[in-house]
């Protein structure tokens, strides 16, 4: 078995990640409105009819703004902690709400989703890994510091969405007030480029073939800067920057068998012809840009 992954959007203006096998799909966070989510999936040849569940990492608006409408329209179960549900002031149909416990597996068809606590300034924030038999992909954003949980699960991944939110120098020189800079850096905010790179260099497993750098700040980072930074240490791992403005390509991740033993995971890019459709501009922003 294998996994298909894409970022539909990644940034403080909205986050939504699609992970699937041949039969079933899940969304991690829904920070785009329903119409925009559907449009971006359609451009990739994906359908909401394959999505079986939604998993919510925490209650900040850039992760939940599209949730009530999408969950209601498609009658999708929403896996969410009580603290996130309360903190987000979400109104969801009671029969759609599912809770989860840290480090316990949730089975959606042959997909296995495992949540773990992370350091972020939210009520009960969690990150997720999604596995299908021997293949595992992590969704690791909105992290104040690389805790032991993150390190443990990162080492299992064949591919990962990993936050690289800000460049230290750009944040220092930027327009943000001191209290906000302190909050971003304070251990419950976001991972810097430097922190993310250190995690990648010291904890990357030999089978990690693809890293999608995610949740880049609009004001305090640059896609070119972070791409250059990581490529110099990438080795055999392909580096992609997930966009704040549009979906990425679909990546097909599978564990390659060879010579009687499992080799490193291989990621194949699924190229979809561009349809040249307009991309709507978002109006939902969080505190961190």
UniProtKB/TrEMBL annotation:
Gene3D superfamilies: Ribonuclease Z/Hydroxyacylglutathione hydrolase-like. It holds the Pfam family Lactamase_B_2. SUPFAM superfamilies: Metallo-hydrolase/oxidoreductase. Residues 13-188 form the Metallo-beta-lactamase domain. Transmembrane segments: none annotated. This is Phosphoribosyl 1,2-cyclic phosphodiesterase. The lineage of its organism: Bacteria, Pseudomonadati, Bacteroidota, Sphingobacteriia, Sphingobacteriales.
